[in-house]
């Protein structure tokens, strides 16, 4: 077996060299460690840069970085795409070059926004306009942050711009949808109200039809006894001596029986359709004829009647006598509702949208309480004293207008007055044919129209 090498102690002159070598080995070890750490940190920095670049690249909003002189130093892909420019067309250009004409750069040095950013460090929600390569204006909302060095000196700004076009388009669509929804809601409300009105009209028509049948039955049963009472009372008056003590009672019987006969006649007028001839007529002339019929009567003595009728004739297909009776009743009621002096305004017009003509009678009378409005067209309903009227006038008016395919609107305010508006179908070929077919034969046209004065349409104003 070989013997171990023999170790000799270092000589004195080798000592310094050994110490130097040992220190160099320590230095090399430190350098190797530092290089390893540097490579690690470089790799981390590369990963961070890649991560940051990916974030900036994937940003939907436009990112712009400027230096202290408002010169663009960086722009992301979204910014280039928004402005339609390559990155090298933006880098190194003044920030003001990307703003549209008339939209000043709000971030120029010394501006209000610049000073606010410096004092608070940021600004948000600034709306302005950018321009593209093709000079297209793009509305944007800009958020800005200030970049500062360790001493606090501003060295640049970071701007994030959000394209508002899509947002505004969606806002417009939302507003349009909301408007459409409001219109639909309003349409539903209108349809509901029209349905309610139609239902009320149907109920009223059915009620009036039932009342009409009952009225006709009662009238026929009463008419014959009344006739006998009147005839035999007249016979008694003719045969009784002049000094007969019961003559006044017999005269009272005749008077009251005649009044009952008039009530029965009104019932029959309400209950059964008229037998008049339907023909073309001018509503203005019918209304004027109704006014002329009442003009000299005491009921209109202290009342000013103002006729404001349509200049153009309002042609309808109707029974002029029946309509004149209807307007006479309405005018008479308006006059009776006025206590003392007052005024009545009569208007007529053509509503093209509804294909209807209308005539309204507005008085300054006492008005109708709300509780009574739904009952004014019922037979025998009246608020007058028992010796004034039978309560059949408006019921007859309702029946006449309904037979003409029309409607009556009533607007009343107690203490202020009442307005009756009669709506009738305008004259058309189909309407004329139907009305002519429905009208009863045997009545002469000229006789039916005789109560309406001939000549041109009436003047617009009359007292």
Structure notes:
It is a single chain. This protein has 463 residues and is of the alpha+beta class. The chain folds into three domains: 57-163, Beta-Lactamase (2-Layer Sandwich), CATH 3.30.450; 180-272, Helix Hairpins (Orthogonal Bundle), CATH 1.10.287.130; 274-448, Heat Shock Protein 90, CATH 3.30.565. The protein contains eleven helices and twelve strands. A five-stranded antiparallel beta sheet has the order 2-1-5-4-3. Strands 7-9-10-12-11 form a five-stranded mixed beta sheet. The chain has a two-stranded antiparallel sheet with strand order 6-8. It starts with 14 loop residues before the first helix and ends in a 15-residue tail after the last helix.
Distance between the termini: 158 Å
CATH class of the largest domain: Alpha Beta
Poorly predicted regions: 439-463
Total tally of structural domains: 3
CATH architecture of the largest domain: 2-Layer Sandwich
Strand fraction equals 15-25%
Mean pLDDT: 79
Structural class computed from helices and strand pairing: alpha+beta
SSE string: HEEHHEEEHHEHEEHEEHHEEHH
**Spatial strand sequence of the major β-sheet:** 2-1-5-4-3
Counting DSSP E segments of at least 2 residues, the number of strands comes to 12
- Helix count? 11
Fill in the CATH topology of the largest domain: Heat Shock Protein 90
**CATH evolutionary superfamily of the largest domain:** Histidine kinase-like ATPase, C-terminal domain
> Largest sheet, described in full?
5 strands, antiparallel
Globular, elongated, flat, extended or rod-shaped: what is the shape? rod-shaped
- Rg, alpha carbons: 50 Å
Give helix % range: 40-55%
């Amino acid at each position: 077996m070989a013997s171990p090498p023999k170790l000799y102690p270092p000589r004195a002159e080798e000592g310094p060299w050994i110490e130097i070598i040992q220190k160099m080995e320590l230095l090399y070890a430190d350098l190797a460690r530092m290089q390893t750490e540097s490579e690690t940190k470089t790799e981390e920095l590369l990963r961070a840069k890649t991560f940051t670049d990916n974030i900036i690249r994937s940003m939907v909003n436009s990112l712009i970085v400027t230096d202290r002189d408002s010169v663009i130093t960086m722009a992301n892909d979204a910014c280039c795409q928004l402005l339609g420019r390559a990155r090298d067309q933006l880098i190194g250009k003044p920030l003001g070059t990307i703003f549209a004409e008339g939209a000043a750069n709000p971030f120029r040095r010394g501006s209000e926004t610049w000073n606010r950013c410096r004092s608070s460090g940021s600004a948000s929600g600034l709306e302005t306009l950018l321009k593209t390569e093709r000079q297209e204006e793009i509305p944007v909302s800009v958020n800005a942050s200030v970049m500062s060095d360790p001493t606090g000196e501003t060295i640049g700004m970071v701007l994030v711009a959000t394209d508002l076009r899509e947002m505004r388009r969606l806002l417009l669509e939302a507003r349009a949808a909301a408007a459409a929804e409001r219109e639909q809601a309003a349409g539903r409300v209108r349809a509901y109200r029209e349905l309610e009105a139609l239902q009320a009209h149907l109920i009223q028509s059915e009620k009036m039809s039932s009342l009409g049948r009952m009225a006709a039955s009662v009238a026929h049963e009463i008419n014959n006894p009344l006739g006998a009472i009147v005839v035999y009372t007249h016979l008694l008056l003719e045969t009784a001596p002049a000094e007969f003590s019961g003559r006044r009672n017999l005269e009272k019987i005749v008077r009251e029986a005649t009044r009952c006969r008039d009530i029965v006649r009104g019932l029959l007028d309400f209950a059964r359709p008229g037998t008049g001839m339907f023909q073309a007529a001018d509503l203005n002339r019918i209304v004027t004829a109704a006014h002329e019929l009442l003009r000299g009567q005491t009921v209109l003595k202290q009342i000013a009647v103002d006729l404001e009728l349509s200049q153009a004739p309002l042609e309808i297909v109707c029974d002029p006598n029946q309509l004149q009776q209807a307007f006479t009743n309405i005018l008479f009621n308006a006059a009776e509702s006025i206590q003392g002096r007052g005024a009545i305004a009569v208007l007529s017009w053509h509503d093209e949208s509804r294909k209807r003509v209308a005539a309204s009678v507005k008085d300054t009378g006492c008005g109708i309480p709300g509780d009574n409005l739904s009952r004014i067209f019922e037979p025998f309903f009246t608020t007058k004293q028992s010796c004034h009227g039978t309560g059949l006038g408006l019921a007859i008016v309702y029946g006449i207008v309904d037979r003409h395919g029309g409607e009556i609107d009533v607007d009343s305010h107690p203490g202020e007055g009442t307005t009756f508006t009669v709506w009738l179908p305008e004259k058309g070929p189909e309407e004329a044919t139907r009305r002519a077919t429905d009208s009863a034969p045997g009545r002469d046209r000229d006789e039916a129209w005789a109560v309406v004065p001939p000549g041109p349409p009436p003047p617009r104003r009359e007292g």
